[in-house]
Amino acid sequence: MFVTCAFVSVESVPDGHLRFVTAGHPPILLWRSSSGAVEELSQPQVPIAMIDHAPPFQSAGVQVERGDVMALVSDGLMEVFDRRDHECGIEALKRALAAGATRPLRDLFDAMVADVRGHGPQLDDQSLLLVRVLR
């Protein structure tokens, strides 16, 4: 048994820095309010408890600005297939995030989930956590 993880530490937001960790988890998507671009924040680390003597997990830092939006997503949102067996994929999530990032988070959430569900049936858990930088 193992678990994947995506984690964001907001303790240092006032100075514009965040710490993040991914462990066997899809990248954290970061929409930049200054450019409209979506970046993937990721670190290649094994899922938690997959290997008995895994090396210590490492975090990384990222600079954020007021208005930036992060999306922490489960693989069930990307691994949705249409009738022709085409996967929704991470690029579709990035497009949906960029298209609606200035909207209220509840509206953005609804739009992103609707895009995925419009692509095909849900076969796995689908989790989405949105965070907007306010400082």
The coarse silhouette is: flat
CATH architecture: 4-Layer Sandwich
CATH class descriptor name: Alpha Beta
What class, by secondary structure content? alpha+beta
State the low-pLDDT regions, or none.
Answer: none
Strand percentage lies at 25-35%
Relevant terms:
single chain; 135 residues; alpha+beta; Phosphatase 2c, domain 1; three-stranded antiparallel sheet; flat
Describe this structure in words.
This protein has 135 residues and is an alpha+beta fold. It has a single domain (5-132), classed as 4-Layer Sandwich (Phosphatase 2c, domain 1), CATH 3.60.40. It contains three helices and seven strands, in the order ββββββαααβ. The strands form two sheets. Strands 4-3-6-7 form a four-stranded antiparallel β-sheet. Strands 1-2-5 form a three-stranded antiparallel β-sheet, with no helix packed on it. β3 (28-31) and β4 form a beta hairpin. The model has no long low-confidence stretch (mean pLDDT 89).
SSE map:
Layout: E1 5-9, E2 17-23, E3 28-31, E4 38-41, E5 60-63, E6 69-73, H1 75-78, H2 89-100, H3 105-119, E7 128-132
Antiparallel strand pairs: 1-2, 2-5, 3-4, 3-6, 6-7
Helix pairs in contact: 2-3
Describe, in short, the structure shown.
This protein has 135 residues and is α+β, with helices and mostly antiparallel strands.
